[in-house]
């Protein structure tokens, strides 16, 4: 399938330079990072949440972390819960099921991102399929998340993770 058209168009509209990073088929963001040989802490994944009024929020955290839903609920002052993947099919129509990109605006979603992601020199985004990541710079990530809510609302789940291979980006 390749990268989601809406995400690529949005990156282009912002002037964010990016590089597609192919990897072996994966079933999770952490596996995508491992298969691509990049650190999971630099790989952004999405978790789609919903409040009690039906408003959806895209929580963006490192693949090596999980969203602490109660902490995010407290920060946003609204009660949030996880949405099953089966309810997302129509929202992300240019993506494969289970491969939600960590970009809210092209999908008319509010996004909230974990501050730790902007500490990295490069960030790898899930691309909307199970075989690519999108590599952008910290500056690109800041442009992508401009005017979006952010904070500390995740907990690391993978300790001492190391990539299997390194990429030569020159």
Automatic annotation (TrEMBL):
Coiled coil: none annotated. Residues 27-141 form the YbaK/aminoacyl-tRNA synthetase-associated domain. It comes from Ferrimonas sediminicola. It holds the Pfam family tRNA_edit. This is YbaK/EbsC family protein. GO terms for molecular function: aminoacyl-tRNA deacylase activity. CDD domains: YbaK_like. It comes from the Bacteria.
